[in-house]
Amino acid sequence: MKTEELIRAVAADDKRALPLARFLYVALAAALVLAAILFAIALGPRPDIAAVALDPRFLFKFAVTLLLATTALALALRLARPGAETGYAWLVLAAAPALLAFGVLVELATMPAATWGTRLIGTNWFYCLTYVPLLSLPLLAAALIGLRHGAPTRPALAGAVAGLLAGGLGAALYAAHCTDDSPLFVATWYTLAIGGVTILGSLIGRRVLRW
Amino acid sequence: MTSNEANAAARAHEREAEWSGLMRRANAGDAAAYERLLKALAIGLRAAARRGFNRAGKSDADAEDVVQETLLAIHLKRHTWDASAPLGPWVRAIARNKLVDALRRRGRRIEIPIDDFADLLPNTAEQPSGIVADVARNLGVLPERQRNVVQAIAVEGISISQTAVRLSVSEGAVRVALHRGLAALAVKLKDSR
């Protein structure tokens, strides 16, 4: 087929694809429902959730994880558009770690050094390392499917950012179950769990995000 | 900057604005504007692909494959273009990606300088030469319905409604087969060799 002929066929094809952002949001929303069901079956909210609902440490966990998810989402949408500037966009990813570092500093400044160790180890670290990645899996699948609808020119990087997005959302869900609220715990175990999801996202992305 | 360079820059700017306008019209359903845009882009893509092959020390005999692959990618990923941004950087990023992939498949790991795509200006020496690229071979692997539809519309140049009458199916079915056929071709080209 000559290029002219191919162009004729392409111009005749008037089937429209869904806008990139909408497609990604729909996929993520569906996965969030699935992850929430998984959460309800396997974990459920902590028993004292009403009592701690306004506790700053408890709320801080959601602030950090949701900030990570939203900044990763913004970056993912850029990475999925060929030629979009991503230079400064990477900086937004520093927001969640910066907030977390601030929380850690406040914790260290206000809590006696003797309690730091138990606050860091907590009681649920094994659960955290298991369930954050597990809850993140459907979300990672959705994020990768959403990015496949786009056209990421750097598949491994885009996959890693999808992992951060999924890990952030999965960790926010898990935070409603976990009774370890110290920023020291979050900085250690949440970071490890989300890091694992990020590496997984990068490895899968490298394979499935080519187009 | 010499006055020649200034003129060239002004022309390039004008051309990019024209491209963006054509793509907006295409997205609003103007097939004629879309075809005009794709033809204009193909000329620049061809020049860039040949340049890339030559620089990598490869024969540019397969350059037309890359042109077609890039045009298909532009088409199938056109919803990733932000209509408020210029079209040029988006097209160049896709073209670069496709060229790098094509060279990699041919056994060369190579970094293409982005400058290779800075200028997608038509060059009179590099007009279409009637090269019949790989797509013809790949058409054969499409399911029958898709192959017939793509063949009729692309090669014979008949309309969607005429194709529907000839194949005794609905126009909707022709549209679906055409879209799926093009998507399948893109996958075939990507995985070829």
Task: Jot down its keywords.
heterodimer; A: 211 residues; mainly alpha; 0% strand; elongated; B: 193 residues
Beta-strand proportion of chain A: under 5%
Supply the number of structural domains of chain A: 1
- Please report the two chains with the greatest interface, counting residues with C-beta closer than 8 angstroms to the partner's C-beta: A-B, 30 and 56 residues
Largest sheet of chain A: none
The percentage helix of chain A is over 70%
Mean pLDDT of chain B, rounded to whole units? 84
* Total beta-strand segments of chain A: 0
Count of helix runs of chain A: 9
The separation of the N and C termini of chain B measures 45 Å
Series of H and E elements of chain B: HHHHHHHH
Helix content of chain B: 55-70%
Low-confidence stretches of chain A: none
Using the alpha-carbon principal axes, give the shape of chain A.
elongated
Oligomerization state of this entry? Answer: heterodimer
